Amino acid sequence: MSAPESKSAGITYASAGVDVEAGDRAVELMKDAVKATHNASVLGGVGGFAGLFDASRLLTYKKPLLATSTDGVGTKVAIAQAMDIHHTIGHDLVGMVVDDIVVVGAEPLFMTDYIACGKVVPERIADIVRGIAEACSIAGTALVGGETAEHPGLLGEHEYDVAGAATGVVEADSVLGPERVREGDVVIAMASSGIHSNGYSLVRRVINHAGWALDREVSELGKTLGEELLVPTKVYAADCLDLVNALNKDGVAPLHGFSHVTGGGLAANLARVLPQGLMATVDRSTWELPAIFRLVSQLGGVPQADLERTLNLGVGMIAIVEASAADAAIARLGERGVASWVMGSIAKTTDDAAAAGTDFVQGAKGVDGGAVLMQGSYAG
């Protein structure tokens, strides 16, 4: 316990719990990683009041549309804090933000981040930002600014939360979305790297209920439970943009849309990128649930319907393409190291589909769009 503050001494910012010098040290530790994400379009250095990005390239667009997204990583930060491992959480943040932008076919140009913490520990903050910078480099996105805020009394000494926002651009006549999807299209799944950054409130509740420690070695995972839970979110932005450029060219555009599988699960997120009147039928037998999802299900006795509307279950991103382009799409993704497969197809919504109960989703997240019918059982 610290000694009581002397009434005769003036109250300083430091005595109130904010260490400005620690914040400065954190910036020194992170600035090289941030600079590594900069390209010729980024003006100025680290530490300015605002990040500057040269938008001259937008003059080459006929009708540029700006796309923006903001997000955090949810309660996954609690796992990082419990394990005192902080260099991966930045990948989760970037993935959650830029992979929403790429869904409409936009290239994420630049990103900013925000870290709120109970106490600035320079090395910890630098680790977080290094992870953000690494993932920005993977996505081809410049990290142009950010903020670290010390909130003593609001957050515990070892607690923090992260958030970020990004801006991208897409040509108006190249926007991907529901209006492009057609009957006969196929649905291609892209494998996730793990749980990604959604559903950790459920996962943490399950492992706490089971009494499992994060350092427990789990044979079916091939690592400790905590190591598995901290596997960073796969960042798909560059892979998706490459797929757009490979398929949609020379006046032909067989790639019609993407869906980022985040909160709400596969069916809900796929439904929101389909037009009214069309339904995606997804065949569960086309993939095997990765071990971590089977483990969560077994440990918690979690109903399948709840798993499916909470976790990605092995599919992190979805592409919707014309059937004739499916093989080319899968081959192109494979060249970039992205495992993918056809998991369903698009047809007209049938009157009796709703009778499937929880296997049927009509519209989602405020979008009065298409529908998704989940069929069959998972392989394995």
Ordered list of secondary-structure elements with their pairings:
Elements: H1 20-35, E1 42-43, E2 52-53, E3 64-72, H2 76-83, H3 89-101, E4 107-117, H4 122-139, E5 142-150, E6 160-171, E7 186-191, H5 200-210, E8 217-218, E9 223-224, H6 225-229, H7 237-247, E10 255-260, H8 265-271, E11 278-283, H9 291-300, H10 304-308, E12 315-321, H11 326-335, E13 340-348, E14 360-364, E15 367-375
Parallel strand pairs: 4-5, 11-15
Antiparallel strand pairs: 1-2, 3-6, 4-6, 7-12, 7-13, 8-9, 10-12, 11-13, 14-15
Helix pairs in contact: 1-4, 3-4, 7-11
Enzyme class: ligase
Domain PurM-like N-terminal: 65-170
Pathway: Purine metabolism; IMP biosynthesis via de novo pathway; 5-amino-1-(5-phospho-D-ribosyl)imidazole from N(2)-formyl-N(1)-(5-phospho-D-ribosyl)glycinamide: step 2/2
Describe, in plain words, how this protein is organized in 3D.
Residues 182-350 form the PurM-like C-terminal domain. This protein is α+β, with helices and mostly antiparallel strands and 380 residues long. It folds into 2 domains: 18-171, PurM-like, N-terminal domain (60s Ribosomal Protein L30, Chain: A, 2-Layer Sandwich), CATH 3.30.1330; 178-375, Alpha-Beta Complex (Phosphoribosyl-aminoimidazole Synthetase, Chain A, domain 2), CATH 3.90.650.10. The protein is built from 11 helices and 15 strands. The strands form 4 sheets. Strands 10-12-7-13-11-15-14 form a 7-stranded mixed β-sheet, sandwiched between helices. Strands 3-6-4-5 form a 4-stranded mixed β-sheet, with helices on one face. A two-stranded antiparallel sheet has the order 1-2. Strand 8 and strand 9 form a beta hairpin. The longest helix has 18 residues, at 122-139. The model has no long low-confidence stretch (mean pLDDT 91).
